[in-house]
Amino acid sequence: MKKSLIALAFATSSIAALTGMVVAKDQAKDALPPGSVSRAKGLEAWKRIEAVVTHPRCANCHVDARAIPMWTPAGESKPRVHGMNIHGGKSRIGAETIRCSTCHMTSTQPNEPAPAPLRAGIDWQLAPVEFIWFGKSGAEICAQLKDPKRNGGRDAIALLAHLRHDASLNGFIPRAWEPGAGRTTPPGSFEDHVKDMALWGAAGQPCPK
Questions:
Q1: Above 80 in pLDDT, residue 131?
Q2: Closest Cα to residue 109, out of 184, 117, 83?
Q3: Among 1, 31, 126, 130, which one has the highest count of C-beta atoms within 10 angstroms of its own C-beta?
């Protein structure tokens, strides 16, 4: 029994180490040398990033501390308050009322056509409070994303790692481009978004005035 537990612990730590190595490798692959991209090119990349993060697929769960999610039903283009009086609560997962997971399953299976609820490979939840940006301007979101005090303590390279880590879990970010038939998607692709984040980071994370 003791040997089995030791073996299990070793296997778990090995998997964690391997995952860390993969993420680190992805970071090195995606990141560009600082200063290798001009400010002008960085601002061009930011405009494309802005179009992604303000799209309903990305922004609807980045709501304020009131934790009332937004949604954009199939056939509509503008977000509105989530139906069924849904409230994320302080937990941001709806634990105080109705859990997000009541309808939004944790699954790596492809999303089904609308109006089937969206799902992802990680437990469904609203974005953390420090990632609030629904309704903010592009300049405000840009300043927030480059500020470690408001982005989870991440620098430009760590933001790239965040994207890759979420993708490795089949999480919310890549699924924005695979929401199921009948729903709109952000412009470009997930890989395009990663490249733009790398360009923006190498340019010094410039923000529009």
A1: yes
A2: 117
A3: 126
